[in-house]
Amino acid sequence: MTTDISVTVKPADEKNQALINAEIFKSLDKKGISFKKEDVTSVFIKKSIDARHGQIKILLRYKVYIGEKPNGDGEFLPVWKKADGKHKVVIVGSGPAGLYAAFRLLEEGIKPILVERGSCTDERKGDITNLEEEGKLNAQSNFCFGEGGAGTFSDGKLYTRSNKRGDIGKIYRIFVEFGAPERIMTDAHPHIGTDRLPSIISGMRKKIIELGGEFYFDTLCTDLITESSIVSQAGNPNESDNQSSSQKLTVKGIRTKNLKTGLESQLLADAVILATGHSAVDIYKILAKISPASLEAKTFAVGVRVEHPRSLIDAIQFHGKPMPEAAEYRLTTQVDGRGVYSFCMCPGGYIVPCATAENQIVINGMSGSGRNSQWSDAAIVVERRPEDIPEEFIEKAKEDGCPALAGLYWRTWLEEETFRHGKGQFAPAQKLTDFLSNKDSTSLPQTSYKPGVVPSRLDSWLPKEISSRLEQAFRDFDKNMHGFISEEAILIASETRTSTPVRITRNKETLECEGIENLYPAGEGSGYSGGIGSSAMDGEKVASRISEKLGIRSEELGVRS
Question: Which residues constitute the domain of residue 41?
């Protein structure tokens, strides 16, 4: 038999296996399970830290086997087959949704063709260095666009609450296969780190190519190739003349443009997966032109990023007690009917520039694998619903024939407004205490944001419905984390890419775009997932539906060690 057991120990006893085993035996006794010590095998599952109530505790979770051996389910990978080229799927975007869709297709021998507007990781590193150190933006290859997607150079957090969407353990195992640390299989909040992810992503690409997949970097998807047909729909069977018809669109492939050579081409395939991420505005505009009803407005969130000295956050969370790890926090409140919460908290991390157009300032946070910088930061964002969008943007979207784009237009406006209050990629910033006091910052704390910051009255130019809610939220947060409001805390604007304001509608069963057959939205850009883990699972799920539609089903999904 098996049972799950949690053991709570002090930090100093985390590696004391004799003590841990004794606690496991006590728990078995309490559960009324009879056993012999030599017949008990425990497998470590998860670790988390509880720093509440002024006392730090380490929580360790085990799966305990009594009278049987571990089955090894978590130690194996799927079998990937060499693609024979009989069936092809174009995947637009090489982020987690795109990469994991490709691996899932290869389980069935289907050829994935990945089209990525940005550069491969090695070249992308140079583009990012130019952006951070010289303020030179490559609009197609940056923190958001390029091999591996937005997560490659901005953190690599894997934590997700979307475990019901798929096998998150499988996602982690594949990462480990290509060089991620084993601890991601057991950490409560697994994290790879931006210093490790590029080589892991490169390894994934090489494997996909080895198995017959293709990659096209620096290649923009400029349009969808669709075929239109008329579908007759019978009405009341008792009324023979009651017939109606509708237009049916089917995607046949995509049109592309190589951004280095200017060469235009097309790629035909059995299906197209859109795994383009939350920043590919042009993809939404392509869909709005072809099938505006395929898009719908959704809730998103915007705000600022707050940065403290890591030592301050550690002291608050660990109550002044030394710990080897940087402290995390998660904060949430409600202000005037809208949620305000921390997002993408980066312990021992950095703030980075994530614009994708010359006249924007967009920021995000990331951490290296060691999470050992002198700062800790997090986005503090305000929920924004479709009905909150100002009328001028709603009218513009209607004029353009797609009302669902209103939130996207407003987000772009805010990013451009932030640019107007900055200087190049120098971002507008204000002390947290000055923001709350509605006054200028005569000096700013040191920050990890490499391009640099300029003093700005964020409280005066951020939309009032955002700034007023942020003000109240910071006061609420300080009640839970006393000391959060500090002279050493800095606010930097603007954090706008927490998720997309637009969802590409898709059928719940087939996962195809509601308006275009054989088109499969996936990942963050589709509006159905957020973050690396959930996007990867979504990519797998979409690829599974494609293989089913093509009539390809594994007789038995084998495993390999």
Answer: 2-71
21 and 145 together in one domain: no
Examine the domain organization and report whether 554 and 414 are in the same domain: no
Spacing of C-alpha 465 from chain mean position: 26
Distance, in Å, from the CA atom of 131 to the CA atom of 451, rounded to the nearest integer, reads: 8
**Two structure tokens written together for 136:** 């030179």
Radius of gyration of the chain (CA): 25
pLDDT in tens, 11-55: 888 888 889 899 999 999 999 898 888 888 887 777 777 776 667
Q: Which residue has the tokens 């190739």?
A: 225
For the packed helices 168-177 and 532-549, what is the interaxial angle rounded to 10 degrees?
100
Helices 406-421, 281-290: crossing angle, 10 deg rounding: 150
Cα(62)–Cα(44) distance, integer angstroms: 5
Supply the CATH number for residue 540's domain: 3.50.50.60
Q: How many residues are given for the chain?
A: 561
Judge if 510 and 491 occupy the same domain: no
CA–CA distance, 290 with 308 (Å, rounded to integer): 46
Contact 540, 100 (CB under 8 A): yes
- Is residue 187 included in any domain, yes or no? yes
Classify burial at 336, counting beta carbons within 10 Å of its beta carbon; exposed 0-12, middle 13-18, buried 19 or more: exposed
Whether 325 and 441 map to the same domain: the answer is: yes
Mean pLDDT on 388-416: 98
Does one domain contain both 456 and 550?
Answer: no
Res 212: pLDDT? 98
User: Distance between CA atoms of 206 and 505, rounded to whole angstroms?
Assistant: 33
Asked if residues 137 and 355 have their Cβ atoms less than 8 Å apart, the reply is yes
Q: What is the pTM of this model?
A: 0.85
In a domain, 229, yes or no: no
For 439-484, strand residue ranges (E) read: 453-455
- In the chain, how many domains are there? 3
Residue 545: how many CB atoms within 10 A of its CB? 17
| Residues 357 and 404 grouped into a single domain | yes
End-to-end CA distance of the chain: 25
Query: Amino acid letter at 508?
Result: K
Phi, psi (5° rounding) for residue 7?
-120, 130
State whether 462 and 366 are in the same domain: yes
Q: 427 Cβ partners below 8 Å, 6+ apart? A: 353, 361, 363, 418, 449, 451, 452, 453, 454, 492, 493
Give the rounded distance of the alpha carbon of 280 from its chain centre: 14
Domain final position from 16, 44, 71? 71
Q: In whole angstroms, give the CA distance from residue 443 to residue 461.
A: 19
- What stretch of H or E contains 287? helix 281-290
CB-based contacts of 233, cutoff 8 Å, min separation 6? 243, 244, 245, 246
Residue with tokens 């947060």: 477
Residue 430 clears pLDDT 90, i.e. is over it: yes
Sign (positive or negative) of CA dihedral 92, 95, 96, 100: positive
